[in-house]
């Protein structure tokens, strides 16, 4: 009899939850995948395909989808969460009692909660009561469609307890996916979340027809302000020069696959925020998180001009052209001030 494979529960059958299920399956796990809609689960189970989010990608037999969180979470020692950040709280209120008290809970999400300003690991801690040694974050340059096609990629598994990070790393190290460990959860989460806002700004520059100098400027200065916030919140500055910072920023800001960059590009081409929201079902986390990051930065006395300008634009106070002009014509300063 073949040895049984360990099981992982993945909650969220959108692009990343589904693509990460493939990583976990390739790494030797069986996967129980929760989908919000029955038809998405049926397509995965019956056609072996998530026709809506990853069309054309074959889902291996070791991935089973269900709409029932109790079925998905039963017996899972590793629980991976991949729903839109602003929707995590309401879902965890339903799921928390179904999660084994020993399970390690992994966030794949890149957002900061509106109102509370909590990072996703903090929302998980609040709703499940899990300590930092049971909460991990996986983040990096991981565009889901590339991952689903088994193109090579690296990522970071961050957990305050390095031995837990190593256990999670071992569970998701596949022939195409190389995870590194880190204990800097704050830096890893802020890198991924703020990247989405910077990608919106890069998309706007692209949509307006500006070329590589403008994009490189927004990326580099975006990384500078991300670093200021992260260090003010206790992160290790090194984290921002790694996969969870620079790596993720470069991937999203350069790729037409990035939803945040594409969202910004449509704004730059003249669509309104409401029109872009209506044009896609997929989540562009930066559209919501720009406001919570701007508030978080203000609370820590940190200057984040790009994030503040994107937030003002999303509130309807600026056009993309005004936003970029305003950023360029600010009071001059030292590069490292
Ligand atoms: N896609 C990527 O390349 C990457 C994404 N991430 C992060 O992963 C997280 C999930 O994103 P991703 O999978 O890409 O998102 P998608 O936009 O691809 O899919 C969204 C998923 O969330 C579900 N959903 C929508 N509303 C709710 C709700 N109220 N409660 C529960 N589920 C809901 C959708 O279900 P339905 O279809 O029924 O609407 C769908 O399964 C985000 O934080 C994102 O930043 C991180 C790295 C890479
Ligand atoms: O975080 C991502 C890749 O690592 C995905 O970025 P988008 O949400 O902008 O598509």
From TrEMBL:
Positions of NAD(+) binding: 12-17, 259
Domain Glycerol-3-phosphate dehydrogenase NAD-dependent C-terminal positions: 184-324
Keyword Nuclease attached: no
Annotated residues for binding of NADPH: 15-16, 36-37, 53, 110, 144, 259, 283, 285
Pathway: Membrane lipid metabolism; glycerophospholipid metabolism
Keywords assigned by UniProt, alphabetized: Cytoplasm, Lipid biosynthesis, Lipid metabolism, NAD, NADP, Nucleotide-binding, Oxidoreductase, Phospholipid biosynthesis, Phospholipid metabolism
Limits of the Glycerol-3-phosphate dehydrogenase NAD-dependent N-terminal domain: 8-164
Annotated Gene3D superfamilies: N-(1-d-carboxylethyl)-l-norvaline Dehydrogenase, domain 2, NAD(P)-binding Rossmann-like Domain
Active site: 195
Alphabetized SUPFAM superfamilies for the sequence: 6-phosphogluconate dehydrogenase C-terminal domain-like, NAD(P)-binding Rossmann-fold domains
The EC number(s) this enzyme carries: 1.1.1.94
GO cellular component annotations of the record: cytosol
Signal peptide: none
HAMAP family the UniProt entry points to: NAD_Glyc3P_dehydrog
Function comment: Catalyzes the reduction of the glycolytic intermediate dihydroxyacetone phosphate (DHAP) to sn-glycerol 3-phosphate (G3P), the key precursor for phospholipid synthesis.
Family stated for the protein in its record: Belongs to the NAD-dependent glycerol-3-phosphate dehydrogenase family.
This protein's name: Glycerol-3-phosphate dehydrogenase [NAD(P)+]
Organism from which the protein derives: Solicola gregarius
């Amino acid at each position: 009899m073949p040895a049984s494979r360990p099981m992982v529960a993945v909650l969220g059958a959108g692009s990343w939850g589904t693509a990460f299920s493939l990583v976990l399956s390739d790494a030797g796990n069986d996967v129980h995948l929760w989908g919000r809609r029955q038809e998405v689960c049926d397509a995965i189970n019956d056609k072996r395909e998530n026709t809506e989010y990853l069309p054309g990608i074959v889902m291996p037999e070791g991935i089973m989808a269900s709409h029932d969180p109790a079925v998905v979470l039963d017996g899972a020692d590793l629980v991976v969460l991949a729903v839109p950040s602003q929707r995590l709280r309401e879902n965890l209120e339903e799921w928390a009692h179904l999660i084994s008290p020993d399970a390690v809970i992994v966030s794949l999400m890149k957002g900061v909660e509106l109102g509370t300003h909590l990072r996703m690991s903090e929302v998980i801690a609040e709703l499940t009561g899990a300590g930092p040694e049971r909460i991990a974050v996986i983040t990096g340059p991981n565009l889901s469609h590339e991952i689903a096609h088994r193109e090579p990629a690296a990522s970071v598994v961050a957990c305050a307890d390095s031995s837990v990070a190593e256990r999670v790393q071992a569970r998701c190290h596949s022939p195409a996916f190389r995870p590194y460990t880190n204990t800097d959860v704050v830096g890893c989460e802020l890198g991924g979340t703020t990247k989405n806002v910077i990608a919106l700004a890069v998309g706007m520059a692209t949509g307006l027809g500006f070329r590589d100098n403008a994009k490189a400027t927004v990326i580099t200065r975006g990384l500078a302000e991300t670093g200021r916030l992260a260090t003010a919140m206790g992160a290790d500055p090194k984290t921002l020069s790694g996969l969870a910072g620079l790596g993720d920023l470069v991937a999203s800001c350069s790729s037409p696959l990035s939803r945040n960059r594409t969202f910004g590009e449509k704004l730059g081409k003249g669509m309104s925020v409401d029109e872009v929201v209506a044009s896609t079902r997929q989540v562009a986390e930066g559209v919501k998180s720009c406001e919570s990051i701007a508030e978080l930065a203000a609370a820590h006395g940190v200057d984040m001009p790009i994030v503040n300008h994107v937030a003002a634009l999303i509130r309807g106070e600026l056009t993309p052209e005004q936003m970029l002009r305003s950023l360029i014509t600010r009071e001059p300063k030292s590069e490292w001030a």
